[in-house]
Design a protein that fits this description.
With 181 residues, the protein is of the alpha+beta class. It has a four-stranded mixed β-sheet, with helices on both faces. A hairpin with a 5-residue loop joins strand 3 and strand 4.
């Protein structure tokens, strides 16, 4: 009985270790590439990403999204999780998810844009991000994609309504690249 239990324990331990190791996904991409792409770093700094666009000579792609919307996660799984999309976003763009419902307090040192419709100062990161989206896009719809060049000129816009498949998204990225000086 003791030998049987130790054998079972050993097999379980081997399975746990094997399953916990990072397994590469299709086409050599690691699983965490997708999660890293959508990391929420908190307060968004538009000036910093504009400078980075100049330094790296890459277009900016802002992805206005929410933390608590299940339909966004489905869209992300179908579109953004595609290995070719991940690769293009990681290598050819400054891709920045901007969460409009982030309830964390806004750091006092963060410079934000003001919204004429809001009479109170921004209290959360999400408030500031939503205000930025309204100012830049004239829209509060999510998910919303906004492509900018390093001078803050809009060079592309997209929503889940006009990007339904990863092929549509890749075409959208190509159009942005063609518009980027």
């Amino acid at each position: 009985m003791t030998i049987r239990l130790s054998f079972i324990f050993t097999i379980l331990l081997i399975l746990i270790v094997a399953c916990s190791e990072e397994q590469p996904e299709r086409k050599g991409l690691k699983k965490e590439s997708f999660e890293k792409l959508l990391e929420n770093d908190g307060a968004f700094d538009l000036d910093a990403i504009l400078k980075e666009s100049i330094n790296q000579n890459k277009p900016i792609l802002l992805y206005f999204t929410g933390l608590n919307a299940g339909s966004f996660r489905i869209w992300e799984e179908q579109i953004l999780k595609n290995p070719e999309v991940i690769s293009r976003l990681s290598e050819d763009f400054l891709f920045e998810p901007v969460y409009v419902d982030d309830k964390r307090p806004l750091p006092k040192d963060v410079k934000t844009v003001s919204c004429e419709d809001w009479n109170t100062p921004h209290k959360t990161i999400g408030d500031a991000n939503l205000c930025l989206q309204i100012q830049l896009c004239n829209s509060a719809t999510q998910p919303y994609l906004l492509a900018l060049d390093s001078r803050k000129k809009i060079i592309g816009e997209g929503t889940y309504e006009n990007i339904r498949k990863h092929e549509d998204f890749l075409h959208f990225l190509k159009e942005i690249e063609n518009s980027f000086d």
